Amino acid sequence: MTFLGLLLAVFMGxxxxxxxxxxSILAVPILVYVLGFSTKEAVAASLVIxxxxxxxxxxxxxxxxxxxxxxxxxxxxxxxxxxxxxxxxAEFLSGPVQLSLFAVVMLGAAFFMFRDNESDEDNKDSFSHxxxxxxxxxxxxxxxxxxxxxxxxxxGGGFLIVPALVLIAEVPMETAVGTSLLIIxxxxxxxxxxxxxxxWGLMALFTALAVAGSFAGTYLARLVPSGALQKAxxxxxxxxxxxxxxxxxxxxL
Length: 253
Description:
Order of helices and strands: HHHHHHHHHH
Number of helices: 10
Largest sheet: none
Mean pLDDT: 80
Helix content: over 70%
Radius of gyration: 17 Å
Number of domains: 1
Structural class: mainly alpha
Distance between the termini: 31 Å
Number of strands: 0
Shape: globular
Strand content: under 5%
Low-confidence stretches: 118-125
C-alpha cells in the first residue's frame, strides 16, 4: 500500500503541474485511504505537501515569466488569513465530517473543471495592471473563501483560484496557472500553522515524488490539451467524492 501511495504522489504532482490546481485535492484521500493516516493528520500533512509541491511548481512558472506577483500577493494575503481561520475552525469538526466536507469540495472542483475556460486565454490582463484598490475589492472575497476551505479540509484551492484569476483579475490562462501555484504555497503554509506533529519521513518522500511529478506536469502543460484533461480529471473527482461520502455517511445518522 505504501508503494501505491507513493506512486499516486507522482500522479498528484503531475496533475498539479498540468492544471495549476486540482491535483492537490488528491492528497487527503491518498493519505487516508492508501497510507492509513487519520483524517486530522492527513489534512495537516496535505497542507505541507501541497505547499512545498506548489512552491517548486511556481518557481518553474516564474522562470518562464508566467507569474503575476502583485496579484499573487493580494490574493494570497486574503487566502492566508482565511486559511488560518479555517484551521482553527477545523478543530471543532470530527474526522468523518471533515472528510464529507472534503467530498463536497471535490464535487465543486469537478464542476469548475467541467467548465471550458479555454476561451479566456485571449484575455488582456488589464485588471491585473489596474490599481491595487481594484485588486483588493475584486479578490478579497474569493481569497478569504479559498483560504477558509484550505484550513478546513487541506486543499490548496487551485480549482477555485485559477477561475478567479481568469474571470476577475483578467489574467491569461497560462499565467493564471503559475500565479495560482504561488498563491497555493502561501495559502497552504498559513493553514498549517498550529497543526499537529506528523510522520515526517514518509511525508518527505511523498513530497519529493509529488514535486518530481509537478515538474513533469509543468513541462507537459505545453503539449497536452488542457480542456480534455480537465474534464477527465473532473470525472475522476466525482467518483472519488461519491466514494468518500458513502464511506462517511454514518457520521450524519
